[in-house]
Design a protein that fits this description.
mainly alpha
Length: 99
């Protein structure tokens, strides 16, 4: 799942919560809850990945220069957001190499 899909789905869910808040006349509570939800989402995206993620990165290293460049820029601690970018770069480079 790409970051774009995650953000679009989060936006749709946020709009849904907003309309529920308008319908129940509790807009302030819903907006406070949405701020907390988005803060947790960004916190999760910026957390360091698990050790298995580093194993995946080791498998991708050395195959494509653009991916290697992203890996080097992200080291020593790679966040989930950076991992998504690295995997996307790897998949795009792999698709180009097959053509």
């Amino acid at each position: 799942m790409t970051l774009t899909i995650l953000l679009i789905s989060a936006l749709v869910i946020s709009l849904g919560f907003h309309f529920v808040g308008v319908y129940t006349k509790s807009k302030k509570i819903v907006w406070i809850m949405l701020v907390f939800v988005w803060a947790m989402a960004f916190g999760t995206a910026m957390n360091e990945i698990k050790p298995s993620g580093y194993e995946d990165i080791e498998k991708m290293k050395g195959k494509f220069t653009q991916t290697d460049k992203l890996i080097e820029e992200s080291m020593p601690e790679i966040s989930l957001y950076e991992l998504i970018g690295i995997k996307k770069s790897y998949q795009e480079a792999k698709a180009k190499a097959k053509k």
